[in-house]
Amino acid sequence: MKSISYILIFFSLELKKVFCLLNKAEYFSIRTEIINEMGLIEINNFISPNRVLCIVKCLDRKECNQLYFNRETQKCILFSGFSTKNNLVTKQSALLAKVFTQNSSSECIKETEYWSIKMNSCLPCPVTFKRYSLNSFSCYHMSQNDMKFFEAKSYCEEKSAFLPRPKTSNERELIRYLSNNTKTWVDSFIDSLGEVYKWGDGTNVTGFKNGQPGNEGDNSSRLNQNVLIISDLCFFDIEYWKTFKTICQIF
């Protein structure tokens, strides 16, 4: 039985508490400690009647790495990224960070296997795909050739896979490693101006570079840049006809 412990470390001026939620079948990257300062990217902001509901909302979104809750205003803010240096914590508020642990018995031993949340077991990666420690729940394949966006998308789909959907910091770090820190296509595009970029599973893309998406071009009243790449852990919009690194993902 897959067993993942989600430990929420509560930083406050008044006290520290540890919340453990066991056996929650959700697709999260595994992190045993807060490794680096990535900054906080807001992904949701709402009123929550209590801190527990705020925590649950964060657990339900795999891209949520950290949350803020103010018990006086009942404001809950969900963030992607990690930070331990901030000015959010007051006597009336708290900043909580996800820290993940995993029982060794639930890990797939071979790098040609990945843990399927849906099947609750190890499954073999397709031929030419490989699992990496930064994301035990997916297998990845790297093309030898750079491609245009829709060529890359079709290339992955022919392998019953898709372009990467790096929602968590670990996944973004992995794509940077696999691409040797070069620009890489990700699984998102739009068809019209003003349309919101979404992943292939329908969830919104977060984690854009400042000023992005920018739709840069000679005429900003038309759609010039309609697809996304990842570079230096952030997303940019760009023209579909350019050629970049192609990585395929499956889970």
UniProtKB/TrEMBL annotation:
InterPro entries: C-type_lectin-like, C-type_lectin-like/link_sf, CTDL_fold. This is C-type lectin domain-containing protein. Pfam families: Lectin_C. The keyword Signal applies. Residues 1-20 form the signal peptide. Residues 135-249 form the C-type lectin domain. It comes from the Eukaryota. It comes from Brachionus plicatilis. CDD domains: CLECT. Keywords: Signal.
